[in-house]
Structures are given as structure tokens and as C-alpha cells.
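Weekly puzzle thread! Below is a chain. First person to post its structure in C-alpha cell form gets bragging rights.
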Amino acid sequence: MPELTISLKSSRQFAVLLCSAHFVVACILWKIDWSLLIKLSGTGLLAISLYYYLQYHALLRSPHSIVSLRFSENGSNCSACTRSNEHIDFIIKGDTFVAPYLTVLSLKSSQSFFSRNLVIFPDGIDAEKFRQVRVWLRWK
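Winning reply:
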């Protein structure tokens, strides 16, 4: 397969999903019979978590957010470019999830011990490129 390059943009669907999930957890936290200090601390941690994940994954405003991907011809490697213009080479792991409504890329870098997951919603990418990425990942 020829090389494929995609540009990512912020995803409103992902932002709404993150906000909803954090709100539900906050509601559950406040329903539990714990002290006010624990509830306030938990809510504060949830707010920090929401801010971080919105900036880093959904809105792509963090300097370390991946804003473009280039898939190589061999199908198991890709190169990512972050907002701070850092280029990172990744190997696409086998536990990558591909569906018509969502793609979760599981990426492993030789520079890091931990894997990195990239969630791509259909509104965060051009529709034709989203289709091409799904086909590319299914046939890799």
C-alpha cells in the first residue's frame, strides 16, 4: 500500500464524551457517603483530569498532542508529528481497535517504555481520510 498521511483536528465528539464521563463520575462521587473533604478533593482531581485530557487528546492544544500521522508502506510503522513539531516513530501494535465510529491506535515508541494510545473520532479527521485509515489498519 502507498504511504498515507493524515492531519488530525480537535474532536467535539471526544470532548463531549470526556465531559460526560467526568460529570457522571463526579455525580457518583457526591452520592457516596464520604466526608466533604474527600468529595471536594475527588472533584478537584476530576476537574484536573478533565482539563488535561481535553487539552491533550480532544482539543489537541498540548505541545505533546499528535496532530499528524504518516503511515509507512510496510503497514506496521507510522511517524507522528506533535504540535511542538517533534517527530516520533511508532510501531502500530496489534491491539489497535478499528470501527466505523471510532479508531484507537495503540502505538509503541522505541524512546518510551509505555505505549501511547491515540483516539480518532470521525469528526477529528477528514471523512475520506478516516475511511482510508480504517482500511489501512484492517489490511496491515
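Puzzle host: Confirmed. Bonus trivia for everyone else. The two ends are 9 Å apart (CA to CA).
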